[in-house]
Amino acid sequence: MKPVLVFRFSPTEQPGYLETFLNERGIHWQLIKLDEGQTVPAFNQEVAAVALMGGPMSVNDDLSWRDPIINFIQAAVAADVPVIGHCLGGQFLAKALGAEVSDNACWEVGWGEVAVEDTAAAEWFGGLEKFDVFHWHYQTFGIPAGAKRVMSSKYCTNQAYVFNGLHIGFQCHIEMTEAMVKKWCEDSKDDLDAMSMSESVMTKQQILSDVGNRVAGLNHLAKSVYQRWIANAKLDS
Questions:
Q1: Measured at the alpha carbon of residue 182, what is the angle toward residues 176 and 184, in degrees to the nearest 5?
Q2: Which of 46, 131, 198, 202 has a CA that sits 20 to 30 A from residue 64's CA?
Q3: How many CA atoms lie within 13 A of 118 on its CB side?
């Protein structure tokens, strides 16, 4: 079975529910830990699919692995190998497709509703047109040429886009587990206290309220997205 490559940019931004999804289906996957100094491999036809996780850095930063990961994404897209990007990963996919990444009008942190803008794309989301997701970002991507914006929120117009029906980039985090949400809140509690004066940023207490049910709903949504993404992966050929 060909592997799914999962790129991690920060030790706190793990695959989360994506790991559960892949393991439950017996899908072979490999974690590339760029945050620990692993290098971006050369793309080859043995890659079944690609997942890009989040991170606190910017695609505009002078990162040693920035150009290699962009080149890898471009090669995967050219070979019709499905790519999914979460937050920073969605920004890297957008950058690889020629779009700009810039500061959002505000920080967006916590649980918030998003709306599906293109009804034809609702199949990615199990037919849902509105639902809550988890946000934690200060930048946003432009929509690449040839891509379709499929999701937006009150505080960030470009929440998700689909390119060629195979690739999807998110500004939000659909991969969250309850443990990840709690750890992010604990690690950033001082920042949250300062930022939550803004209506676009929840307090730690608000984020953790009913977190179990919120995460369960998010996992259900992510399952639909991941099924649509992996359906186009050539796992056995």
A1: 75
A2: 46
A3: 15
Query: 30 with 6: CB under 8 angstroms?
Result: yes
- What does the pLDDT look like over 191-205, one tens digit per residue? 787 777 789 999 999
pTM over 0.70: yes
Distance CA 229, CA 235 (A): 12
Return the CATH number of the domain spanning residue range 4-230: 3.40.50.880
Q: How far apart are CA 134 and CA 113, in angstroms?
A: 9
Tokens describing residue 197: 């004066």
List, for residues 129-148, the tens digit of each pLDDT value.
899 999 999 999 999 999 99
Domain range summary for the chain, segments of one domain joined by +: 4-230
3-state secondary structure of 162: strand
| CB under 8 A, 24+ apart: contacts of 36-42 | 36/11, 39/65, 39/68, 40/7, 40/65, 40/68, 40/69, 40/71, 40/72, 41/5, 41/72
* Cα angle for residues 70, 57, 54 (degrees, 5° grid): 70
